[in-house]
Amino acid sequence: MIMSKLAGMTINERLFHVLIMDEFDTAILSRDQDEAIALLQRVELSREEAAATVATIFEGPGKYGYTKP
Questions:
Q1: Half-sphere exposure of 3 (CA within 13 A, CB side)
Q2: Are the C-beta atoms of residues 40 and 11 closer than 8 Å to each other?
Q3: CA-based R_g, the chain, Å
Q4: Which pLDDT band, with edges at 50, 70 and 90, does 4 fall under?
Q5: Angle 21-29/33-42 helices, nearest 10 degrees?
Q6: What pLDDT, in 10s, does the model give residues 12-49?
Q7: Whether the predicted pLDDT of 9 surpasses 90
Q8: Is the pLDDT of residue 2 over 70?
Q9: Burial, 62: exposed, middle or buried (Cβ in 10 Å; 0-12, 13-18, 19+)?
Q10: How far are the Cα atoms of 16, 48, 54, 68 from residue 41, in angstroms, in the given order?
Q11: Distance of CA 3 to the CA centre of its chain
């Protein structure tokens, strides 16, 4: 079995590694749930994991470094 290059990385590390951190931040700040989930799926999260992650961030964005525009 071949291990993914992303295996063992945090979500932020994965987003940074594939150069989509800024796109993810923009999606979160604009509350674009579909785009944020799609971006997380690009870094090998399942749809369920991505949806849960986005929902958690939306519940308390300041806790994750996001401030409301």
A1: 5
A2: yes
A3: 12
A4: confident
A5: 160
A6: 999 999 999 999 999 999 999 999 999 999 999 999 99
A7: yes
A8: no
A9: exposed
A10: 14, 9, 11, 24
A11: 21
Please report which residue ranges of 1-69 form alpha helices under DSSP H: 11-17, 21-29, 33-42, 47-59
pLDDT at 51 over 70: yes
Q: How far apart are CA 22 and CA 13, in angstroms?
A: 12
Segment 4-7 long-range contacts (CB within 8 Å, at least 24 positions apart): 4/44, 6/43, 6/44
Question: In degrees to the nearest 10, what's the CA dihedral of 67, 31, 12, 69?
Answer: -20
Instruction: Show me where the domains of the chain are located.
Output: 11-63
